[in-house]
Amino acid sequence: MEENRETGLIYKVALMTGVACLAIGLILTSMGSGAFTGLFIIAFFVALGIGFRGYETLKGFSFTIMILGVVTTALYYPDYFTEFNGTSTSILIIPLLQIIMFGMGATMSLRAFIGVIKQPKGVILGFLLQFTIMPLVGFGLAKFSGFPPEIAAGIILVGCSPSGLASNVMAYLGKGNVPLSLTITSVNTLFAPILTPLLMALLAGTFVEIDTVAMMWSIMKIVILPVIAGIIFQEFLSGKAKWVDAALPKVSMVGIGIIVLVTSALGRDGLIELGIMLFFVVLAHNLSGYLLGYWSAKLLNMNETDCRTIAIEVGMQNAGLAKGIAQGMGKLATLGLAPLVFGPLMNVTGSMLAMYWHDNAPEGELDYSKYIETRNRFIEEMTRSGRLSPEALKGAWAEEVKSLFLAWTEEQPDEKSFTRQQLEELIQIDSDYGLNAPKKLK
After folding, report:
1. What is the mean pLDDT of residues 250-265?
2. Backbone angles phi, psi at 87, to 5 degrees
3. Where are the beta strands (DSSP E) in 346-395?
4. pLDDT in tens, 115-136
5. Which conformational region is residue 27 in: left (phi greater than 0), alpha (psi within -120 to 50 degrees), or beta?
6. Do β-strands 83-84 and 87-88 pair in parallel, antiparallel, or remain unpaired?
7. Quick one: which of 32, 151, 282, 327 has the fewest CB in 10 Å?
8. Is there a contact between 324 and 227 (Cβ–Cβ < 8 Å)?
9. 84 by DSSP, 3-state: which?
């Protein structure tokens, strides 16, 4: 109890420190004293990010706030991050993206593709909307933005990219259809090496020269090969190399931070010149994806949960891949600017949308997110008591574990969200998709 109180105090102190740093930074700016202004603005974002960790409703914004601190660091002190010992830091982008994509693959399963059979309408719709709405909206915004050609092409590039892991997280937080989200992301990623270059050639070819074959190979080596390696690791080695399992999320977060830092430093002049306008164009792009994705699904009679899931899948892009493609084309400082702005922005808007939908769950539809929370509490209690081993948490549910789970839910006073029939249906989904289902007793 005392420890919790002390931890809570740390978060409050961090928030107060952040506010104080922002105030000092603004005062220094108004006085025209810029020597230390950057340090206080950076400290504001770092302290705010730490403080947000202490509040459940704000925790989801913590990483994005930290990323804004990284961008601020690059804008104030770019010379430290553009080269090292005469070598451009841009050479870090592709290797780091490959590590991040390996981590993405390690969270996926070959079973995710079973959704193409189980939920064909939702998967096909998500796929079609992803590669029509966002590329076309991006083309329209690029055409009328008045931006220099390479920066305008970056808007199209982020629109032609597939959805990424962030969309799966937001689907979970927003009480969406998580299996559908995973399947759409997997299918879109699989087709990206073909569709992204073709769409770029068709829509962005008037802005910049597009080498379709080179871009296909770039996506293969940045995404497909690392993702396949990650899936193989997840299928055969996950749980056996526990330090890798534990390290991957942290390494991915650090990798994202470094990529943003380098991209921001190299594109600093463009960001300063077009930052505000680019922000609003990218925001329009992102919000159009949510809006058109949702109502397209609605018009085709998808249920509310699936409409929300498709909206998130369409509106949220793999901005990291777009930055990698820009780097592969040697245009990170221009073509990479729109993806740079899109990444943090979509996480803010996605989190806000997910929180709103979380508090307004659709009535009469299966709440898969609530089920995940219930299932995870059961797994935690069973592993803590020694009845389940962490290595037994993949594959289809065994009948003995299923019976134990159903009996356990009936004993929990706060686990009356589902009927027995609904639970059995959700357990079947787990078994179909291999979503962390406990397959045997210890």
Report:
1. 82
2. -105, 135
3. none
4. 667 778 888 999 999 999 999 9
5. alpha
6. antiparallel
7. 32
8. no
9. strand
